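Appendix B. One record, verbatim.
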Amino acid sequence: MKVQAPAPAEIAAPRLRVSEIFHSIQGEADAVGWPTVFVRLTGCPLRCAWCDTAYAFEGGEWRDIGAIIEKVRGFDARRVCVTGGEPLAQKRCHDLLSALCDAGFEVSLETSGALDISRVDARVRRVVDVKPPGSGESARNRWENLAHLASNDQLKFVLADRADYEWAVAAMREHDMPSRCMVLFSPVYGELEPRALAEWILQDRLPVRLQVQLHKYLWGEAPGR
């Protein structure tokens, strides 16, 4: 007996586990200051010492991509940031990113740098972490990702102290990162004074962009902002 294939409507839509979707001011990277919708996906294989979104490691709810896009549209914002956790830990993240681009949004991706970025839609701005020793996860840096960076991507170092800074400077120079894309140096909130980091950057004449987490200066460490 021949089994009839299910009709398209009967095929389950691709779903992702979502921690939260919210509207806020982008506090980091080259889009800092712009109203942005954040889609935070659940789960992360890393455990960085300074992580401020540990609540996204578990929980959340399953949503299909169409429902996510409908929710995003409701905020009437042009920019969307897919973040985590580690968004690329969910294989359907690639489908979500492409669908958001197709829907006309300006899309960015915040990723830990530990997973392959080569399959990410070329229309997406990728903000890729480079983990210093202070994070406890520097062994997880996927250096192969550097070859896949485009000029509109960004490499981000989050630094806890002078040792992290010196490590970051050495890594940046070894891999000639500024020739690939924008390089961001960011102090760990509450641990490294932004002024100290600014002075080091100026003293060493570094071709990097200092960033602070603007959202934390606006709203503190409240989740979902």
